[in-house]
């Protein structure tokens, strides 16, 4: 009987020691990053924050493309428009304010009578009319949905990196890297889809505009600073995702492939 009790107590003590060892190992894993690795992670997060700021600025503003009519002789005013993912603004400008070296009306930043409306294909499903041309709502909707999805994935990436820095969950580094890289790719894809929506609006996806549009006045266009912010944000998010991916790798993955040679004394 005494042997049975002693064996029982020994087994119980072994289980307690094993449990303490597991808790100690988990505590070491959750202790956090090393100071050097934490600093590198914060620098990569700062880079990703720049990309996140630019992406929010791009998606939230409407200066993606500017459409300009050509100046007409004998008229004191001309029309211009600028639009983004959500909003369209038309503007009537005085030709006296337009630079003399321009053949077209603009730029749209000049003072004039502006009329801004949100696209109705998000609510009622109606296409918008711009200078007697009709938007292709399917293409515009696709660009907007892709851009919003990019912001959602980017927010998940930020949450993962914050958990890494605050809780020491290093396994989320790789998840955050994938989120930021995917966010950058989605944003660049949304920019490309929007570019095709502009060509669809103008009626020629090959980029060779007819001199006298049958469906409206002759137009010239130029992509504006919001689209530039979107392209820059996509590239920076890709770079940030690559940095997080490098940080998620072992410190020296090539160490096992190139072992150090021991020098023996002669």
Automatic annotation (TrEMBL):
GO terms for molecular function: calcium channel regulator activity. Pfam families: Claudin_2 (PF13903). InterPro entries: PMP22/EMP/MP20/Claudin, VDCC_g6su. The keyword Transmembrane helix applies. It is a multi-pass membrane protein. One of its GO terms (cellular component) is L-type voltage-gated calcium channel complex. It is found in: Membrane. It comes from the Eukaryota. The chain crosses the membrane at residues 141-164, 171-191, 225-247. Its main location: membrane. Coiled coil: none annotated. GO terms for biological process: calcium ion transport; regulation of calcium ion transmembrane transport via high voltage-gated calcium channel. Keywords: Membrane, Transmembrane, Transmembrane helix. PANTHER family: VOLTAGE-DEPENDENT CALCIUM CHANNEL GAMMA-1 SUBUNIT-RELATED (PTHR15025), VOLTAGE-DEPENDENT CALCIUM CHANNEL GAMMA-6 SUBUNIT (PTHR15025:SF6). This is Voltage-dependent calcium channel gamma-6 subunit. It comes from Octodon degus (Degu). The gene is Cacng6.
